[in-house]
Each structure stands twice: as C-alpha cells, then as structure tokens.
C-alpha cells in the first residue's frame, strides 16, 4: 500500500516557527540567525555556555526550570537557569584550579544525571573542549577514544570508574585527572562534589572566538573505525536556528530528547539547543520501557518530543492502545532521528499519539539538523523532508561504488533522481575537521560539496528520500539496491515489526538481497510466512526484492537506533564482527 501525504496540522497557540517554507528560505541568512543570540558582553565573542545558561539566568529567566532530571527510581531533581549558572561556574573554576585551560579535552562518561550537564557547560565556559562518551562503551573503546582525543580530564561515576576506567588508567599517561561522581572517590581520583564545593560560584567567561574548538564528537563506528569530528562555538547558531525550525521549539515548551548524551543528538538537542532556547528540558535516566516513557510524557507535560525510530517501532509493538492509558494532551510535536523513519511509524504516531512523527536527517559531521519535515508543511511519510533554510542540498551522480563520481575534481548534480547526498559547506555547525586526520577530512569534500556518504533521491517538489549508506548499497545483477527501500516495503506487511537487509554474495548475480525480519506479537516464524513475505516484496519491488528471508527477533542496533547491517553481514558470512562497542544492550 502507498502512503498519502499527511496534511500540515493547525497548532493551537503559537503558529509554527516556519510557517512559509519558501519565504523562510528567501529571507534567511546565518548573519540574521547569529543576531538572535546575545554574544558575550562587550562584543567578546560567542560562547555556547553563555548562550545556553548565563544570558537567561542574568536576564528575566533565572527562576525558570532549565533541567528536570528523572532518576531510575523516578526521583526528580530540578535546576533553574540560575542554579545551573552557579554550578557550571564552580566547575569552570575547578578546571582552572586543576590547570586545565582553553583547548584541553574534558571527557564525560556519565548517564543523564545533573552532574553531566554541569560538566558540559562548565567545560565550555572555560573554553576547554567537551568530548562526550557513550556510557555503555566497554573499556577498550573508551581507552581508544580517550587516547585519540588527547584526554586531560574524565568525569565519570563510581560504578563506571570501577568497571571500565580503573583497568585502563595506567595506559593513558595524558589523562591527568579523573573526577568521580558519587559518595567516595577511589585512590588516584578526585571527588566531583568535593572538588566543586571548594570552588566559588563566580566565573567570568573568557573572550571566545567563534572558531574556538568546543566539542569533539566521535562517530559511531558502524561503518568503520570511529572518527573524532571537531565542532566550534559558532555551532550554537545552528543549534538554535534548527531547533526552532525543525523541532518548532517555542518559549514555555517542555522538551524531551531521548538520545544518549554520549552521541551528537543527545548533546546538540539533548543539552545545547533546548537551553539556548530557554526551555525546560526533561532528562530521564531510565532505560526504554513503553509505560515508563508514556508516564514521563504525561507526568512532565512534555510538549515536544525528539526520539529514535527504533523507539517508535518498539512502542508500535506494544500497540496504540497502551498510549491511550496516559494523558498526552500536552504533546504537540513529535520528531525522530537516528535512522530513516518508515512510513508506518509516521502514520502510527497519528493513531497512537494524535500526532504524526516528523522525520529529519543529519550527521555527526553536520552538527545540526540539515533536512526536515516541518510543522508547517505537509509530511510525505518515508521522506526525510526538505532542507533547512540556509542549507543547500543536492544529489550527485554516482559511480559503480555508489559514491559520487568525481572526474578531474568535478561532480555532476542530478536534478531529479538518485545519487550521493551532498551539502554546500558554510553552515555554522559544520565540522571543522577530523582530529589528527587531515587527509581523511579532505576526502569528505569535492568540487565545493560536502559528500555525506548517504545515497538519496530527490523528488519533483524537493523532498529528499533516504536510500542507503553508500557502503550499504547492494549490487545485484546490474541493479544498485538501497536496503532501506526493501526494509520499508517488508515493514508494510502486517506481520513485520522491523527488518534489516544486506547483500549476500552470489556467484551469478554478484549479490542477492537477504532480509532479517523481526515479527510483531501474535505472529510466529514459519515457512509459509517466509514464502508470503518473499512474494509480498516481489509484488511491490520486482527484481530488487529480498530473495532470502531469515527471522530474527533480536536485530542488532546501535544506541542511536540504527540497525547494524554491517554486523548482520558479518554474522551471515562468518566474518569478524569488528567494533561492536556501539551495540545496543549491556556492555
């Protein structure tokens, strides 16, 4: 079945921030977007932490709740903007006392606890560089990233220090200080609480050049070794503008981003953007549980919710009726990112939540949302949407590898059709390099375009549709097949909850399409269902449909929601699994 566009919906109260897309693109400039922020007093530059905390605390919003942390056992800790200003000042002073200055790397290995947010913003006040780590990493991935990122300071918890840091500490001579959040600080570490208590709560943010390094984000490593993408203080301009346009954030909103703060989504939109917008931000320390998540949405009167496609699909497995047990009347906008959102999930949001789910697209390297389905526009289910104001996107003709064809340094734009997705550089949150990998960074650009490594198509109205990662493209009997298209089609079958698709080597076709399918409750694997799914795919897709189907109720995901096709392929072919540090589940 096909999916009709979902018409834009009237929103009670304030109209959408982006009500007229074409006018916004014509009138927008990044200079105007910069002017919406304060800048450091006296024209001393631009600092992310000042825009996120101090300008609100020192203005009229000091008593507004900035952060509402929900613990595993549902205890709530609230910090106002003034609370956050004083605590982040203490952390900045603590860094100074430890001899940590501008450019020095401060890593976090923490869950969603108040100390994480204090560390992030205090580090940025000090003009040191914040590098967040995923708390479920094992010791070796942590060690690799601390070494690659030239870590000077690590802030972590008692438990994580004991389980993951103690055994690798002597292999990291550059790591000078480990601050431990908890009741006790083991030998060789410092107590986070005691260190901050010894410092004053007044701090003057130094002059900050917008091009000063601010954030170091490690890519997930799902398609190769992790890279450390460098972002600067200027990125805050894009965080602010894109949150208003793509997430439709308004004053007074209560915002919840479920992304782990160890990844770029959890930092850009789980910390920085909502605070820059002066909102109340909810941070839940609990793991996914359908009823817990609905309870958080209801109890805290969340108005804007940003989550992952995997989470939406997991909620779908529990059925729309579960959502009806909770008062979700405050919710007015739902968005998703992490991997492409299948059309069924967009439509399911309308049924279960009374709101469609708005997909958007961006990368660690872009630092902020680049393409989105906006509140003031029709949604085309399955589409990434249209480029943000200030962003020029295109698809480029690609060669046999699936990547853009570069001939004598030139590329060819495909006006309508399929190719490698590319962006014109120049937006404020564009990454400024891969740390220590200048050559690798240079290869990400050609002929004035940033090459994303994603294959997409663009339709006649300028909506972009994800096809595949270029290195996931399946080459079968002369066809270049995007696995997402096959996955999407299989998920239209009423028995299928989720699918992961790979290319399996074949002596005749080169590769054939093999799908791994997770079923919805009430459906059991059988040979009859296998044949039915193969026939279903062939009716919809013809020659590019899956020729083999395996049932798997535990498809491997990253914590950011991506099905790890690389891991599926390695397991299918009996190859080494490689880096599985980003794999969802216990470490």
Automatic annotation (TrEMBL):
Keyword line: Acetylation, ATP-binding, Ligase, Nucleotide-binding
Membrane keyword on record: no
Database matches in SUPFAM superfamilies: Acetyl-CoA synthetase-like
Signal peptide region: none
EC number assigned by the record: 6.2.1.1
MF term (GO), any: acetate-CoA ligase activity
GO CC terms in record: cytosol
Gene Ontology BP annotations: acetyl-CoA biosynthetic process
Transmembrane segments: none
AMP-dependent synthetase/ligase domain segment(s): 64-435
Entry-linked InterPro entries: AMP-bd_C, AMP-bd_C_sf, AMP-binding_CS, AMP-dep_synth/lig_dom, ANL_N_sf
Domain AMP-binding enzyme C-terminal: 485-562
NCBIfam families, alphabetized: PRK04319.1
Protein name as it appears in the record: acetate--CoA ligase
């Amino acid at each position: 079945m096909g999916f009709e566009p979902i018409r834009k919906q009237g929103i009670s109260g304030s109209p959408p921030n982006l009500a007229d897309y074409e006018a916004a693109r014509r009138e927008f400039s990044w200079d105007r977007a910069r002017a919406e922020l304060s800048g450091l007093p006296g024209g001393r530059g631009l600092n992310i932490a000042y825009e996120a905390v101090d300008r609100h605390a020192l203005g009229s919003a000091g008593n507004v709740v900035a952060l509402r942390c929900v613990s595993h056992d549902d205890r709530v800790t609230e910090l106002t903007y003034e609370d956050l200003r004083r605590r982040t000042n203490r952390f900045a002073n603590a860094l100074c006392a430890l001899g940590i200055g501008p450019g020095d790397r401060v890593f976090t290995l923490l869950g969603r606890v108040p100390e994480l947010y204090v560390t992030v913003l205090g580090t940025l006040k000090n003009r040191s560089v914040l590098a967040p780590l995923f708390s479920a990493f094992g010791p070796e991935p942590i060690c690799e990233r601390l070494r690659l990122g030239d870590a000077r300071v690590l802030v972590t918890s008692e438990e994580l220090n004991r389980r993951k840091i103690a055994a690798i500490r002597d292999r990291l001579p550059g790591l000078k200080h480990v601050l431990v959040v908890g009741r006790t600080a083991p030998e060789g570490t410092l107590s986070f609480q005691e260190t901050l208590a010894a410092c004053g709560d007044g701090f003057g943010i130094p002059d900050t050049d917008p091009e000063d390094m601010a954030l170091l984000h490690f890519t997930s490593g799902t398609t190769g070794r992790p890279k450390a993408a460098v972002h600067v203080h200027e990125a805050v301009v894009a965080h602010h503008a894109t949150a208003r346009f793509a997430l439709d954030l308004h004053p007074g909103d209560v915002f919840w981003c479920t992304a782990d703060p160890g990844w770029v989504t959890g930092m850009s939109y789980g910390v920085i953007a909502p605070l820059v917008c002066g909102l109340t931000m909810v941070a839940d320390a609990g793991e996914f549980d359908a009823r817990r998540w609905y309870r958080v949405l209801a109890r805290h009167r969340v108005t804007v919710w940003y989550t992952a496609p995997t989470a939406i699909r997991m909620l779908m497995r529990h059925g729309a009726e579960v959502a009806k047990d909770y008062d979700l009347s405050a919710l007015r906008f739902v968005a998703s990112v992490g991997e492409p959102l299948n059309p069924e999930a967009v439509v399911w949001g309308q049924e279960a939540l009374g709101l469609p789910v708005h997909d958007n697209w961006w990368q660690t390297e872009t630092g902020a949302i680049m393409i989105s389905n906006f509140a003031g526009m029709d949604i085309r289910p399955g589409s990434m949407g249209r480029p943000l104001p200030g962003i020029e996107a295109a698809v480029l003709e690609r060669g046999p590898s699936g990547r853009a064809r570069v001939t004598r340094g030139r590329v060819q734009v495909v006006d309508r059709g399929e190719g490698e997705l590319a962006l014109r550089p120049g937006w404020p949150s564009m990454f400024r390099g891969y740390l220590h990998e200048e050559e690798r960074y240079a290869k990400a650009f050609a002929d004035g375009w940033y090459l994303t490594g994603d294959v997409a198509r663009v339709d006649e109205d300028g909506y972009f549709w994800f096809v595949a990662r270029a290195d996931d493209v399946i080459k079968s009997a002369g066809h270049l097949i995007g696995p997402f298209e096959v996955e999407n089609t299989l998920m239209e079958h009423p028995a299928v909850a989720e699918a992961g698709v790979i290319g399996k080597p074949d002596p005749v076709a080169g590769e054939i399409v093999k799908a791994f399918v997770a079923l919805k409750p009430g459906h059991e694997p059988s040979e009859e269902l296998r044949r039915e799914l193969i026939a279903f795919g062939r009716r919809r897709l013809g020659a590019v449909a899956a020729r083999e189907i395996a049932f798997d109720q535990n498809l491997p995901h990253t914590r950011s929601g991506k099905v790890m096709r690389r891991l599926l392929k390695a397991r299918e072919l009996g190859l080494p699994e490689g880096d599985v540090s980003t794999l969802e589940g216990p470490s």
